[in-house]
Write a structure and sequence with these properties.
membrane, Vma21, endoplasmic reticulum, transmembrane, mainly alpha, 2 helices, Vacuolar ATPase assembly factor VMA21
Length: 98
């Protein structure tokens, strides 16, 4: 009886681990795309439409746009750490309830 119970429980645990892995990979993919696109987009957008539009010199607009991009990277990293922390704690809680 113990063997059949173990045989039935193994696929369920495997499915839960696969769903957990898919969730982690989706989160990682989302933040990877954000890390690539958002800072670059903000750099060129802020340089062209914000800083040069307000009359900053070309050199100054490069500097300020780079600062905006660096801030965006830090914000994305902070959100990634927050999401990873909460995802790990919710999986731990779900595992303890079983």
């Amino acid at each position: 009886m113990s063997l059949s119970h173990h045989a039935l429980a193994t696929p369920v645990l495997g499915r839960a681990n696969d769903e957990s892995l898919v969730s982690v990979l989706k989160t990682l993919l989302f933040f990877t795309i954000m890390m690539i696109t958002l800072p670059i987009g903000l750099y060129f957008t802020s340089k062209s439409y914000v800083f040069e539009a307000f009359g900053y010199s070309s050199n100054d607009s490069y500097l300020y746009a780079a600062i905006v991009a660096v801030i965006a990277v830090h914000v994305i990293l902070a959100f990634f750490v927050y999401a990873a922390w909460n995802e790990g704690s919710s999986q731990t809680r779900e595992g303890k309830q079983d």
